[in-house]
């Protein structure tokens, strides 16, 4: 077990004196989503990934969360909170948050001492089929860390970010990759310095200029609830006949992509990224029960991208989440040509022509002082 884990576990001895100085306040964080280049698919308790993953932090797809807190007048054994989503009180979100609070309680024992109101909204439409758990859970984790910093102002920025990622992971695995930018590694890897199973870390080596301002245009091929939640998908890896081979493939791909991120070879980048997306879907197709998460239009988009690459020698490529929507990735210098290609050839496959133009981002931002 890492030193950091022990540090988090034992770090808090809260005096009533330090709490009594804090009566009430609010903090707001804007936290991005992320897209994995090498996928996290398979985990064990407590939210430990079976393989290392690496992601681009996004920018335009984000969650905005305000945490209002007020010191309780009397001690209560339970959490007391309300949650509002896009202005509406959402009691059906409460069990998920309650479970998250229970999981993190031992690391943030002060939380129960406050009455809490969580107000949250996403920059992308609720029904778009874009998972909001990464941006949502990381935003809440950061708000809680701001409260911790108020109680204990001496904590360092490094500790703040690592612990925010640690907490976010306990809400949703991929959320631990949404604290910082631009490239984040999560999961121990012998060849990546500082990598950890417990929190996401910034990719530690110099990234080639080809990956600066990388674009991700998300084509909303199928809006609406996902057919299978990620949580169920991870569980299906437990008895999956190809699981061990998949975890090895992902760890090998992390090593390969790490070299590519430094040498800038876009052709090799495409091979890894597309193969990862298809391997993720292959796992779902070969699990028990099995699922096909792509839609006919997902395949049409993929074929169009391959055709366009053959004709133009472009470096555009695709990746997928555990759903039908397609992330179209391309370098900054191809921005105009690929945008034209997307508008002229790909948008027709999106539901109601919906798509989101995003790009690699710098990470979460606090929007208000306490
Ligand atoms: C396909 O982080 O949503 O997007 O840990 O159960 O909350 P939980 O799962 P989640 O899984 C994300 C899976 C993925 C691939 C990835 O982002 O690496």
Automatic annotation (TrEMBL):
Boundaries of every Diphosphomevalonate decarboxylase-like N-terminal domain copy: 32-191
Domain Mvd1 C-terminal: 218-345
SUPFAM superfamilies referenced in this protein's UniProt entry, alphabetically: GHMP Kinase, C-terminal domain, Ribosomal protein S5 domain 2-like
Domain of life per record: Bacteria
This protein's record includes keyword Lipid biosynthesis: yes
Keywords: ATP-binding, Lipid biosynthesis, Lipid metabolism, Lyase, Nucleotide-binding
Alphabetical list of PANTHER family matching this protein: DIPHOSPHOMEVALONATE DECARBOXYLASE
Protein's name in the database: Diphosphomevalonate/mevalonate 3,5-bisphosphate decarboxylase family protein
